[in-house]
Amino acid sequence: MITVEHLTKRYGDFTAVDDLSFEIQEGHVYGFLGPNGAGKSTTMNIMTGCLSPTEGSVRIYGHDIFQEPNQAKRLMGYLPEQPPLYMNETPEEYLRFVGEAKGLRGGALEEQIRGVVEQTRLQEVYHKPISALSKGYKQRVGIAQALLGDPKVVILDEPTVGLDPLQIIEIRELIHQLGRDRTVILSSHILSEIQTMCDQILIIARGKLVAFDTPEGLERALLAPSQITLTAEAGEDEVREILSQVEHVVQAELTPREDGAVSVRVKTDGDSIYDVSRAIFFAFARRNRALLEISLKKANLEDIFLELTEGAGQPAGPEAPDEMKEVDEA
Ligand SMILES: Nc1ncnc2c1ncn2[C@@H]1O[C@H](COP(=O)(O)OP(=O)(O)OP(=O)(O)O)[C@@H](O)[C@H]1O
Fold first, then answer.
1. What's the 53 CA to ligand 1 centre distance in angstroms?
2. Ligand 1 center from residue 47 Cα (angstroms)
3. What is the pTM for the complete model shown?
């Protein structure tokens, strides 16, 4: 239903979006996940026809976003990163203005406004100036305008950024509801957010699509290089030698301990981390060397995200370190 082919956006010598191709199917909640500056907003702006690409195409249900913009845009609702809200207006005035701009009139307009106000629970603030609303309510007004016209696809750029924890929960619930009867595409640089809300994840780093799968699929596909940590009662050289004889051990990082033992982080490329750990256990036993501890660590989505996007984050002002910290703690 949405086909993105070889999308590229360059600003001078800088490539913000680099040959992105993917397909979005109906009935899922998709998450664009990537660090600040990865190219998520640029991609969304191009997909919604707000920005032209340097190369590539976007088709919405077969309609090219630049050749048939009216047909394509009618099928999409968009909440940009900074929604153009008119602060002096009330949600009522603003939604009427957006609805009319989308071609709605008379009874159909009234009915649509009533529907989106109910869905986004704006009743309480309907007649207050937008400038007086909390960030959470402003965001709901932004989502309400995206829903006008009953689009099949709703695209939300960082819908929870800047909200407090309670507001985040409310917006998540709203997105969950939206996902029941339409396709939702949202972006975030926070892994836990994408994991909670989306059933399909696209990881974007340095303008490239580096992974596209379900959360479970991503974990499964990238499980193989898992880690084993162990502590052995042996000298460093001997530990190295023993491990070099174990099949599927691809890397070993040794840290000598004060008590003379050695702690080791082992990376494997084996299908079964259990088989590799068993082989390590017997390799030490054959040499009469004790393993004081051995533990297995499977990769999780956070490891995968950090590995795929390593070094791709761009500190974007004073808030960036805290925002990235959320990824670390996810
Ligand atoms: N008009 C522009 N001129 C030059 N560079 C730009 C322009 N717009 C975006 N960029 C750069 O393109 C890259 C991608 O930006 P984009 O906003 O798409 O990233 P993002 O993944 O949405 O990140 P964020 O979460 O910080 O918004 C960034 O390095 C940004 O600085």
1. 13
2. 15
3. 0.77
